[in-house]
Amino acid sequence: xxxxxxxxxxxxxxxxxxxxxxxxxxxxxxxxxxxxxxxxxxxxxxxxxxxxxxxxxxxxxxxxx
Length: 65
Hints:
Layout: H1 3-23, H2 26-41
Helix pairs in contact: 1-2
């Protein structure tokens, strides 16, 4: 498992417990936090500007060495 996924699960768990305790529905929010945590919180700290995908418009650059 990647580090960002583990952090996302942990933050989702904390978020789910906090919101669940506040709304008196821990079961629902715990499940939602664990499910949404990796997808939402894994984007925190990533740099979308620095990541470029190669494709037809942007082929990978090869060194001639």
